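## retry 2 of 3
previous attempt timed out at serialization; input unchanged, resubmitting
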Amino acid sequence: MKCQNCGAEIGNSKFCEFCGSQITLEMLKEQEQLNKSGCPKCGSSNITFRRENQGEVRNKKSKKIIHKTVGVCKDCGATWYTDSVAKKRKTWLWVLGWIFIFPIPLTLILLKKKDMNNILKYGIIAVAWIAYLALAFSGLANKNDSKTTVSNSENPSSVVVAETTIAETKAETSGIELIAGEMGKYGKEITMSAGTDLEEKLIVYYVPAGKYTVKNLGDKFTQVSVYEGFAKNSETGYDEYTKTGSIVRINVGDEAEIEVPDGWFIEIHKPAHISLIEK
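## retry succeeded, writing output
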């Protein structure tokens, strides 16, 4: 604790040994509390204090030397400014109080105001506590409501309805999304040239017939092909496409137009990722 007149660290005497100012009982209690708090690093009570010159403040008529009290731990060697430690701890407690239980710091502040009308003072305190308790009970009620909602969602039929609604909404806004190699809703696995050295398994997509705007959602150049089907060539023994429809090549982020006749399929290859919006 520092002398309020000159800033020197006070001892146990009733007067400051530097400037002679009287040391109040309240200042002595604060000094005792500072000593009990110990080293902020290791907690040791084996500490001493010294004054440290922080420089001078000058004006035309006078100058003032600025001092700070420095705590020194004899066990771990740590040093600290005593006023900054006290301020930090007090601020931390006040912040917690205002965040979690705001009526407590408000009550403490108002109780210290001796010049304030008692009716107004206690009225404000009462309103603060009523508001806090109302918020607390409101939070508990909302928590119980959320539990009831979760319980209702355990009903399988309601889950199915919710998922269906979400899927339909997504389809309306983003159309059909196809990722090469993934079945999805429209995928079907086929095997071309089965039993030959060119046997190939593919996942093709039978989307509803119509005209579509195709967008490349992936990060690579991709090709989208529309085919009627495939059949074995009697001369080569390998499968070939029977009829070919739209074939478009799309850069990343670009769009193109295709038409899918009824019963035809779309073929894409990894890592293709496209969306189809019906026109």
